[in-house]
Amino acid sequence: MTQPPHDEPTAAGPDELREQVEETREELGQTVQALAAKTDVKGRAQDKAAEVKEQVGTKAGELKEQAAVKAGELKAKAADLAHQAQDRLPDPVKDKAAQAAGQARAKAAQAGQVWQEKAPEPVRQRTAQGAQLARDNRKVLLAAAGVAVVVWLACRRRKG
Q1: Is this structure's pTM higher than 0.70?
Q2: Residues whose CB is less than 8 angstroms from the CB of residue 10 and which lie 6 or more positions away in sequence, other chains included
Q3: How many Cβ atoms sit within 10 Å of the Cβ of residue 119?
């Protein structure tokens, strides 16, 4: 049998010796488990992958939220610019634009009627979704149209 270490007291009786043996077994079992965990490369890699996946998901959520906020800001800015552009347009230009819009609406209604009569159902459904998207983003579309008219007029005046 081996000698006990000098810093540990020897057991006074068999019960105390059994208790020390049990504690030593537990410590040895924990040490073996820790060593086994360190050598389990696959398990450690899976744990790390799960951790990175969670971090990426969190970061993606943050970026999505930031993008939504930025999109809202840009949408508001575009609407503001469109209003500024409309305010600067002379009345005759506004009247012509309103007249052209009325004509465009009439032609669009006529084309829509022909479309309803001739287009297959799946195509009509997709088109209706696109139209709904345009209606939902009407301010942005109007802003873009207003800016386009201003640019067109500016280019026209330079040539003339």
Answers
A1: no
A2: 4
A3: 14
Two structure tokens written together for 79 = 């609407």
Q: Do 99 and 149 contact (CB within 8 A), yes or no?
A: no
Is the pLDDT at 89 greater than 80? The verdict is: no
Closest CA to 97 of 160, 156, 149: 149
25 pLDDT tier (thresholds 50, 70, 90): very high
Q: Are 43 and 37 in contact (CB under 8 A)?
A: yes
| Banded model confidence at residue 34, pLDDT cuts 50, 70, 90 | confident
Phi, psi of 120 (to 5 degrees): -70, 155
Task: Give Cα separations from 63 to 12, 38, 68, 152 (angstroms).
Answer: 66, 35, 9, 37
Is it the case that residue 160 has pLDDT exceeding 70? no
Tokens coding 134: 């345009």
CA-CA distance, 8 to 21, in Å (whole number)? 13
